[in-house]
Amino acid sequence: MEGNRFLILKPGIRRSVVMHYFIVVFLTMLILEVIFMLAIRTYYYDSVYNHLRSHASATASYYQRYVSVLYNDNDRSLLPELLNIFQLDNAEVQILDKKGDVLISHTGFQVKDPIRTSDVIIAVNEMKMSRWVGKMPETGEMVMAVSSPLLAKGDVRYVLRLVTSLDNVNQKLTSTVLLSFVISGSVLVLVLIISIGLANSIVKPINDITVASAQMAKGRFDVRVTEEYRYELGELAKTLNFMAQEIVRSNQMKDDFISSISHELRTPLTGIKGWSETLLSGNMDDPEETKLGLNIITKETDRLIGLVEELLDFSRLKQNRIQLHKESVDLESLLEETIFQVKSKADQKQIELQLDIAEDAHGQLTTTGDENRLKQVFLNLIDNAIKFSPLHSTIRVELSTGDCSCIVKVIDQGIGINEDDLTKVMDKFYQVNPDRGGTGLGLAISDEIVKAHEGELSLHSESQQGTTAMVQLPIRKADLEEA
Q1: Which domains does the chain possess?
Q2: CA distance 386 to 438
Q3: For residue 460, which of 378, 352, 381 has the smallest C-alpha distance?
Q4: Separation of alpha carbons 299 and 277, rounded Å
């Protein structure tokens, strides 16, 4: 059973990897096998041919130098003697005339039909040595024949033909090729085993990640994947774990938000309901007390509207549905209005608000944007600074120029933000201190508004050392051209 599972791979990445490895190696081995077969066949056949050619060349040279000169046309009687001189081990020596008829043969075997193979034709017509490989018509045996012209007075008188069997050579070739096939088969089996191991090393991490992903899909975000895998799989495991961690954090933030918003909604609703029931009872004879109750209802209603507007603003910004009415905005005037608007709240904590304008920035710093939305950003930043600053402290609002940008800094002397919270404080629903109220959307909304103005909002803080909120906005193009 185990062996069958080893040989039969289910469809999937494992089988694809194994098949790809196997096919690549198989094709490589096949090409090498074909090249090897052709090379070794050429080597053996060339060795036989060189042996026959060397003998034929020496024989033809001997005949031309001595026999053709001494005996002229009366040398046919010398053919038996020449045959003995020309004999070669493991080869049949034949002497043919120009027509291809065998005049005499070393074996004495009579050939009735003229020999018209390519080696003989080339030797007669082109007067040069040639070889032919093929089967003997009489026996079907595979042979190699080398024919060389025997020249006399510049003409072909006879053709010397050496014929040798290739059976032994072919048997050696067959044995060598079979051995190479055995070796190739062994290599392929080894490659198959190794490729299965490699496939498992890839598929096992993927299976582990898949199982973990399935559990996460069912809500088990406490599951984690081993991050010890190498290369891309390790990065994938880290990313998946980070995703689960972020989902857990996001869910926790949502839970905190629901708890916080429930508290934020309950407080004004309780006040509204209490005073509404009191007014409806008709037992209030004091006009001043009635007026106080109505003022509380109005104040708490405005507070509820503010909460709802904050949620709607964030939703619109995330969906790119909010419309910015951009125009030239004088940042100095905008900051003065904003500070004046929150001054009463700062006075309640005896906090001093200072506006510091750089010497080269008076009346010069303008940007293109939505004035109301930018005021919303600065109100939020200054309001946060007041909320988290101690009594009798100072909050500085600085306006200066940067590299093609306007820079607004809100610097407080408050409790600051620790390093862990600083990286998350602009996330939606995140609250550094949920007990102080709010939805946790103020900074997230401000960040989205600043980004919509092609600017950047950043926070710099240390615990118990105060916080600096910095807004960078592009300077209006007209101002840049004038500069």
Answers
A1: 13-171 (3.30.450.20), 233-318 (1.10.287.130), 327-482 (3.30.565.10)
A2: 14
A3: 381
A4: 17
Q: What is the pLDDT of residue 72?
A: 57
Radius of gyration of the chain (CA): 51
Give the tens place of pLDDT for each residue, 329-358: 888 899 999 999 889 889 998 999 999 888
> What does DSSP assign to residue 144?
E
- Rounded Cα distance, 369 and 467, in Å: 26
Give the confidence band of 144 by pLDDT, cuts at 50, 70, 90: very high
With a CB cutoff of 8 Å and minimum separation 6, the contacts of 226 are: 208, 237
- pLDDT > 60? residue 6: no
List the 467-474 sheet strands across, edge first: 352-357, 394-401, 405-411, 467-474, 456-461
Residue 178: how many CA atoms within 13 Å on its side-chain side?
6
pLDDT band at 133 (very low <50, low <70, confident <90, very high): very high
Helices and strands in the chain: count of H runs, count of E runs: 13, 12
Mean of the pLDDT values across residues 78-100?
Answer: 84
